[in-house]
Amino acid sequence: MSELEDKLAALESAEAVFSQNELPYALIGGLAVAVRSGVPRATLDSDFAVPSSVDRAWLSDRFAAVGFQLKGRFPHTLHLLHGSGEPLRLVFDPEFDAMIERAELLQLGDIDLKVVTRDDLLAMKRRAAADPERCRSKSLRDQADVVLLEGDTREAVEGW
Predict the structure, then answer these.
(1) For the whole model, what pTM was predicted?
(2) Domain annotation covers residue 156
(3) Running DSSP on this structure, what letter comes out for residue 118?
(4) pLDDT for position 109
(5) 76-104: pLDDT as tens digits
(6) What confidence category does residue 159 fall into, taking pLDDT thresholds of 50, 70 and 90?
(7) How confident is the model at residue 57 (pLDDT cuts 50, 70, 90)?
(8) What is the CATH number of the domain that holds 65?
(9) What are phi and psi of 26, to 5 degrees?
(10) Domain range spanning residue 107?
């Protein structure tokens, strides 16, 4: 499989877990930035916000049942690995709960996914960029995502 096929397979499996369990969710992070901006964006994993009230052990079991392996459990995230090798991260944050409810159904390849709105994604990225505990390189990437989402997507060739 190609990297794109691996990513799409992981997204499709994740969406199946959410749908089969009637669990609200929203695609967030770098992949959501690419979808919302229309500009490809390098990202290592696929990130989903899920309601903060969801039992993490229960959810981890649902993902394990379709072939995901739990790689890490942290205060606000579960890190999973799809059978294709594609990493996936589930994020639990009370501030994201209302954003999950506002997420919009969009098509990504042949998959229909709920994606956080552009305005909510901007709010997430601004919050992350301003976090004093965040490492500088990630903060700068968040700031670049904000600029990209605000429309800095010129196609002109830029030289130096």
Answers:
(1) 0.91
(2) no
(3) H
(4) 79
(5) 999 999 998 999 999 999 999 999 999 99
(6) low
(7) very high
(8) 3.30.460.40
(9) -150, 135
(10) 3-118
| pLDDT tens readout for residues 124-146 | 999 999 999 999 999 999 999 99
Using CA atoms, how far residue 42 sits from 35, 69, 79, 145, in Å, is: 12, 23, 18, 11
Asked whether the beta carbons of 146 and 129 are under 8 A apart, the reply is yes
Domain-located, residue 81? yes
Domain count, the chain: 1
Residue 152, in any domain of the structure: no
Distance CA(133)–CA(11), nearest Å, equals: 29
Q: Is residue 155 part of a domain?
A: no
Tokens 């960029």 belong to which residue?
Answer: 129
The amino acid occupying position 87 is P
DSSP assignment letter at 56: H
Q: CB of 145 within 8 A of CB of 137?
A: no
Cα-Cα end-to-end distance for the chain = 37
Q: What whole-number distance in Å separates Cα of residue 14 and Cα of residue 155?
A: 33
